[in-house]
């Protein structure tokens, strides 16, 4: 049954990439299998829809030919998303890449030869949460993820170490097999990844005992993520080659979505940080020194005499790192606290000031 990816994500056909991304995050969080009330089937559908609609090329093919074409296009239409600790094994392609190759079609029509396509594993997704200070200064995090990975015993070729690889008899070493489809336009040749050798053109004489000849194992891995200084909430890091591994092909990428926990007293605006400091009326009039909390620790700040409500004090080079040993500023917004009650003596003093026009 054909699936409407736009309907699955709840967006219009003219939706922007940002709208598609927001819809995906909302639905993936809602249906995540690890949550109470999560729905594994809907979670897979949401991931499948996002994998196609978030990619300009796949989306164009989907809009033109429908979901059956998009799912097989380039071998990457299979769903491949997920979050921390989720098992991505159900998303392996298993060598069942299938799709029209116009080069092969016209090659068959006019006597040309076939070509072997480059195969690539699916891109995967996960998310991490940083505290405010980690996001500002950068940090190295470890994430645990279960995904299809290259077998370390056979190095991904599926053969028992020390044994030979033979040419696949089904595809004669080409990695693809031909088939003919009859249409109203006549007979059209299509290609499909060879399911015997998984597109490698070689089969092991003796299968690897670890991966049973598949070259790929589904395992939990700890991955180190270097988060750069200054990253913001909602940004995404791309870890090249850390996505789904496939036999005889290139591994996909892993996308790490960043969430940042707000600070209790400090806010961020681009590369500047800021906080609000309440000072006494007398200190505003006469000047004083206060201790202000920054991400570098407590810093003494001089409040100049005659400070007004809304004035600011700027601490240079105490903001977000911007490279080359430079940083933004830390801006302190001053708020003058007025006393709720006054003693008779204080009132008398203020009356005297009033007479002086202060």
Overall morphology = elongated
Poorly predicted spans: 70-115
**Widest beta sheet: strand line-up:** 11-12-18-15
User: Helix tally?
Assistant: 9
The strand count comes to 18
**Strand residue percentage:** 25-35%
Which H/E pattern describes the elements? HHHHHEHEHEEEEEEEEEEHEEEEEEH
Sketch the major β-sheet.
Answer: 4 strands, mixed
Average pLDDT confidence is 81
Q: Which value, in Å, is the CA radius of gyration?
A: 31 Å
Distance between the termini: 81 Å
Give the structural class. alpha+beta
Portion in helices: 10-25%
Oligomer: single chain
What would you say about this model in short?
23% of the residues lie in helices and 30% in strands. Residues 70-115 have low confidence and may be disordered. By secondary structure, it is of the alpha+beta class.
């Amino acid at each position: 049954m054909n699936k409407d990816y736009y309907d699955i994500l709840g967006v219009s056909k003219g939706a922007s990439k940002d709208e598609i991304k927001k819809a995906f995050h909302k639905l993936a969080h809602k249906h995540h299998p690890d949550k109470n009330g999560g729905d594994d089937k809907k979670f897979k559908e949401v991931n499948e829809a996002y994998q196609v609609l978030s990619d300009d090329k796949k989306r164009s093919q989907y809009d033109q030919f429908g979901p059956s074409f998009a799912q097989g296009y380039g071998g990457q239409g299979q769903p491949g998303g997920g979050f921390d600790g989720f098992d991505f094994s159900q998303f392996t392609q298993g060598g069942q890449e299938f799709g029209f190759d116009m080069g092969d079609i016209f090659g068959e029509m006019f006597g040309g030869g076939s070509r072997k396509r480059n195969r690539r594993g699916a891109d995967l997704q996960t998310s991490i949460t940083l505290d405010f200070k980690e996001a500002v200064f950068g940090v190295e995090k470890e994430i645990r993820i279960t995904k299809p990975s290259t077998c370390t015993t056979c190095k991904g070729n599926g053969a028992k170490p020390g044994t030979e690889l033979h040419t696949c008899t089904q595809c004669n070493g080409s990695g693809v097999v031909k088939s003919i489809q009859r249409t109203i336009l006549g007979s059209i040749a299509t290609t499909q990844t060879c399911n015997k050798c998984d597109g490698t053109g070689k089969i092991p004489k003796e299968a690897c005992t670890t991966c049973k000849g598949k070259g790929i194992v589904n395992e939990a891995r700890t991955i180190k993520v270097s988060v750069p200084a200054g990253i913001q909430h909602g940004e995404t890091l791309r870890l090249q080659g850390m996505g789904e591994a496939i036999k005889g092909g290139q591994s996909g990428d892993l996308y790490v979505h960043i969430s940042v926990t707000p600070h209790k007293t400090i806010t961020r605006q681009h590369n500047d940080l800021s906080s609000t400091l309440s000072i006494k009326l007398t200190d505003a009039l006469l000047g004083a020194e206060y201790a202000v909390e920054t991400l570098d620790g407590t810093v003494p700040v001089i409040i100049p005499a005659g400070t007004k409500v809304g004035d600011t004090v700027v601490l240079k080079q105490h903001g977000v790192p911007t490279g080359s040993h430079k940083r933004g500023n830390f801006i302190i917004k001053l708020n003058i606290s007025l006393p709720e009650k006054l003693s008779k003596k204080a009132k008398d003093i203020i009356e005297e000031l009033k007479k002086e026009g202060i």
